[in-house]
Amino acid sequence: MIALLRRDLRLAVRAGGGFGLGLAFFLIVIVLVPFGVGPEGAVLARIAPGMLWVAALLAALLSLDRIFALDQEDGSLPLLATSPLPLEAVALAKGVAHWLTTGLPLTLAAPGLGVLLNLAPGAYGWLVLSLALGTPALSMIGTFGAALTVGIRRGGLLMSLLVLPLYVPVLIFGAEVVRRGAEGMAVATPLAMLGGVTAGCLAALPFATAAALRINLR
Amino acid sequence: MSFWEYANPKKFMVTTAPVLPWLFAAAGVALVTGLVWGFFFTPEEARQGSTVKIIYLHVPSAMMAINAWVMMLVASLIWLVRRHHVSALAARAAGPVGMVMTLIALATGAIWGQPMWGTWWVWDPRLTSFLILFLFYLGYIALWEAIDDPDTAADLTAVLCIVGSVFAVLSRYAVNFWNQGLHQGASLSMDKQENVANVFYIPLLVSIAGFVLLFLSLVILRTRTEIRVRRIRALEARAQQGEGRA
Question: Shortest CA distance to B171 belongs to which of A202, A168, A151, A102?
Fold first, then answer.
């Protein structure tokens, strides 16, 4: 499992694309927001928590179709399926690799982009914390979506249609944490809910992902 | 004689063929009775005037939108556990019907909301969760359409339906948390404390029955179509094999 994780990480870093692309996309979306809604600080500060979360979510979506599609093309996915490692563990490793290459950089970059959107000073810590808690769930849900559509040619668009509705709870709780943090309110409830969603995704979705992979590899 | 005998496609076809016209007729009678009664023979509500009458479309379609998803979930589970093809096809058949019910509920809600709340759309928890439900239906149907192999498609959509159900319920509570709404609470419940008044209640029940019957007839009709499509495919495959041999 560790070996698979390291292989995926190495592939992501050396092959280019996924790693930097998600970050660049995140940056560009955030830069586009003021052009769309105007440069007034008060307006930007109000929508900053939500925009940061939506942009991070879209950036995480961008690299999802690479999770299994590349392995399917070069034939390593059937090899992984026949290896002694259970497919559930493969699914978990893939999700973790996706998080390390997408979710983690997004989390680290978010405060810098928060400055661009005039985010309230009190919210930076909560932004990082909520993204760190929430993006693993995004990666696990995305891995599930990628496993569902791995057998379909040009399944990327379909996958976004399947995955985005599943992102709704994570987005709601994540953005709520930052919004409440920015207004100086108590954040314990949405933070706990966000953590609960993520824990549930980490625990249960590898099984669904593995089931979908088995069906596709039949 | 057990319930599972209807999982045999032949048995299903033979049983449903004579029932279906009656089901459609019953749905038509109940719908016409409920709607005509509701539209023309109930008093106007004190504050809402005649706009209240859209309840006879709004509430039944909203109920069926949710119940259709529950039916798809049950049918998907039956397919995954017992591998009855009729069950998978029934789930597939229910998808578009449920989606249209969701659309009807959203559209009538918007038309009702405009005079009552002064706006076509608010991000109220109930409205929002119905919009999300609509997206789930879209994804489910799109996944069915995208996969060629019928068994793979049935399996994958069943898995999606189960995971989607969990997330749909989760979203329902998440949006509740996210925003307080304009929409009233439940109009109907088992304890009669908060129900709508009897004059509206009985025609409403009749139109709900009409919607249930209509849903059942449409799903059975569509399931029969799907079974026939399968049979044609099988016959074509056999014919091609025969040509190859000759």
Answer: A168
The closest of A130, A123, A142 to A172, measured between CA atoms, is A130
Q: Which residues of B194-213 are buried (b: 16+ CB within 10 A; e: fewer)?
A: eeeeeebeebbebbbbbbbb
Is the per-residue pLDDT at B17 higher than 80? yes
A204: nearest CA partner in chain B: B163
| CA atoms within a 13 Å half-sphere pointing along the CA-CB vector of B185 | 4
Is there a domain that residue B63 lies in?
yes
Contacts of A65 in chain B (CB under 8 A): none
Give me the residue spans of the domains in chain A. 2-217
Specify whether the CB–CB gap between B144 and B90 falls below 8 A.
no
pLDDT band at B48 (very low <50, low <70, confident <90, very high): low
- The answer to the question of residue B104 being in a domain is yes
* Residue appearing with tokens 């439900």: B133
Q: What is the ipTM of this complex?
A: 0.85
Q: Please judge whether B159 and A176 are an interchain contact, meaning their C-beta atoms are less than 8 angstroms apart.
A: no
Q: A85 to each of A79, B29, B111, how far by Cα in Å?
A: 10, 59, 55
Q: Cβ–Cβ of B142/A158 closer than 8 Å?
A: yes
Does any domain span residue B10? no
Burial class (CB in 10 A: 0-12, 13-18, 19+), B175: buried
Q: Which helix (H) or strand (E) holds B141?
A: helix B125-146
Chain B nearest-CA residue for A189: B177
Please say whether the dihedral angle defined by the alpha carbons of residues A79, A84, A87 and A90, taken in this order, is positive or negative.
negative
Dihedral sign from CA coordinates of B181, B182, B185, B186: negative
Domain count along chain B: 1
**A168 to chain B: closest CA residue:** B171
With respect to residue B114, please indicate whether it lies within any of the assigned structural domains. yes
Q: Residue B109 corresponds to which tokens in the numbers above? A: 């809600």
Q: What is the pLDDT of residues B50-105, one digit of tens each?
A: 777 788 888 899 999 999 999 999 999 999 998 888 889 999 999 999 999 999 99
**Residue of B138, B147, B157, B169 for testing the chain A interface, max A β-carbons within 10 Å:** B147
